[in-house]
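Minutes, project huddle
Topic: does the predicted pose make sense with 3-hydroxy-3-methylglutaryl-coenzyme A bound?
PN asked that the exact inputs be recorded in the minutes so nobody has to dig through chat later. Recorded below.
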Amino acid sequence: MSEVVEIVEMGPRDGLQNEKRIIPTAEKIALVDLLSRAGFRRIEVASFVSPKWVPQMADSAEVLAGITRRAGVRYAALTPNMKGYEGAKAAHADEVAIFASASEGFSKANLNCTIAESLERFKPVADAAKADGIPVRGYVSVVTDCPYDGRIAPSAVARVVADLRDMGCYEISLGDTIGQGRPETVDAMLTDVLNELPPDRLAGHYHDTAGRALANIDASLARGIRVFDAAVGGLGGCPYAPGAAGNVATEAVAAHLAALGYQTGLDMAVLAEAGALARNMRGA
Ligand code: HMG
Ligand code: MG
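Predicted holo structure (tokens), as shared on screen:
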């Protein structure tokens, strides 16, 4: 049997958060319900952040309330602080994610605080989630290049990975937020990160701004990573990362992995339908 690689679907959260047009809740629910049929085990559908910072995600509770939950699928939400965690818990998110930065410049732009302050805010979220039995995923953004601070030292990424690991994150997703990573810089970053966490607790989250996401996935596969984040239709971007284009498209990653002989368990026909729906949801 061929080896399994899991794709974690980001479309409804990372994919849509940056869209200018405020997308009606019903459209978001329809996308999630379609994605639920594609074979994903995890779909990130919501973000309990300040609606002033990310207006598109303001209806996250309604989205979680409106979707038809499929057995075996975990529906995840971003939670930057306790207020976000309380919202995600009340909306019955199956897992939550805390998201830190490897650079001070991006931390300030995205979370309005230093890296250290963000970790202080995440700690009670991780503790509460543990007490409530809710799994916590961690993200580290700008793992190779930052729109504010430039090239990022691998040791800076490894430090934040270690902090999130110590808080109890079951997996840490490594974000090339602005899609400027290269196989060599991703590989160098992984050399340091793998000293802190084994590959089966890491994921690659590569935006495709420069068209190198698949090459960066290959570099990560070579290091043993078997989980990758992607968004149907290649939607996405981060409102606080100038130049951040879409996440790598789920359809492209699934096809690439299949060509390499990996199994993703995804239904390509449903994915194509979801990709078309996602692209239609885009603002003009
Ligand atoms: P702040 O302004 O410093 O926060 O923002 P504050 O604590 O001073 O609160 C200001 C206001 O926000 C208050 O309301 C709070 O109640 C409210 P007011 O009194 O002014 O009416 N507030 C909240 N409302 C709803 N939910 C909350 C919440 N917290 C405070 N959870 C804050 C700090 C963290 C809130 C803000 O910076 C924020 O929301 N940032 C999120 C930015 C974001 O969502 N970025 C995109 C996601 S990250 C990403 O895309 C990267 C990733 O994909 C990986 C990669 O690609 O690298 C994960
Ligand atoms: Mg992202």
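Observations noted during the meeting:
- The longest helix spans residues 115-132.
- The mean pLDDT is 95.
No decisions taken; revisit at the next huddle.
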